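User: Sequence recovery, please. Input:
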């Protein structure tokens, strides 16, 4: 692995719930993933969502479990240096892949990503869960770099998932959880310490599943914002079949085989494969 100040990165991640790692992805992955992302955008997946309403400018595209139908996505998530990095950050002896999520904001896209934290969306229990947000363009405040609330992973809160698109079909699902809504952060932004970074292709952001985050639209008229979130899980993570998680969405169920997982089971097999272990 490239020489990074691993101790500092881990300490920042644990303290703030988020950190950046510069120039960690090899250029060969950047080029092949840019091409792979563009092919997905031309052939949207069955569970993909166009968050931008039809008559609006721009395009906010979301998609899930792309690795299962695209070998470049699969190889990037499984065979790059990222699994080992995730395992080390989590102090885990093994690592399974939870899923990948593509989040593209084309130029002139107004749609924001609402403030949220990830764990309430997921049917998971455990601590060893980590996300990497990888940008495949230069990412700035103008194009919608993701903003994080420093230390929010330690708030001891579990807020209701916020639906990314008004008509994405997830609203009713998420209501089933009966959780408190996230506070209105934008109206009280001065009360929060926001961390965000301009990124070059090759840089990644690492975030904790309870760190609150969101992003603006892409105000640029020419620069794209192609982002991919990779979710990795370690030793202690088990299935938690709570009502209303994203896995219960019909479109997600349609792209996955039947899971047959019970509360307390470890996630593994075809859908959540073991991709790294320390022996
Ligand atoms: O790309 C975005 O705007 C949001 C990213 C996100 O929510 C995530 O990585 O969990």
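Assistant: Recovered sequence (279 residues):
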């Amino acid at each position: 692995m490239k020489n990074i100040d691993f101790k500092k990165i881990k300490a920042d991640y644990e303290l703030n719930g988020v950190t950046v790692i510069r120039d960690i992805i090899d250029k060969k992955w950047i080029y092949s993933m840019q091409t792979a992302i563009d092919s997905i955008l031309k052939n949207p997946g069955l569970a993909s969502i166009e968050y931008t309403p039809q008559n609006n400018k721009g395009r906010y595209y979301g998609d899930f479990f792309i690795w299962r139908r695209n070998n470049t996505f699969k190889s990037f998530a499984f065979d790059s240096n990222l699994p080992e990095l995730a395992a080390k950050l989590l102090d885990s002896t093994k690592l399974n892949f939870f899923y990948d999520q593509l989040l593209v904001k084309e130029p002139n896209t107004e749609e924001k990503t609402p403030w949220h934290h990830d764990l309430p969306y997921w049917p998971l229990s455990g601590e060893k869960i980590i996300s990497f947000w990888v940008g495949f363009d230069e990412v700035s405040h103008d194009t919608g770099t993701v903003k994080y609330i420093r230390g929010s992973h330690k708030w001891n809160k579990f807020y209701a998932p916020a639906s990314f698109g008004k008509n994405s079909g997830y609203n009713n699902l998420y209501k089933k959880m009966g959780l408190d809504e996230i506070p209105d952060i934008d109206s009280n932004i001065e009360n929060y310490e926001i961390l965000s970074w301009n990124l070059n292709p090759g840089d990644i952001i690492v975030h904790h599943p309870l760190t609150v985050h969101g992003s603006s639209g892409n105000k640029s008229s020419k620069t794209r914002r192609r982002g991919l979130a990779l979710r990795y899980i370690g030793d202690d993570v088990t299935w938690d079949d709570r009502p209303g998680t994203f896995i219960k969405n019909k479109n997600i169920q349609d792209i996955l085989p039947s899971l047959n997982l019970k509360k307390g089971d470890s996630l593994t097999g075809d859908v959540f494969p073991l991709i790294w272990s320390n022996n």
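Residues 103, 113, 118, 131, 133, 146, 213, 215, 227, 229 surround 2-oxoglutaric acid (CB under 6 Å).
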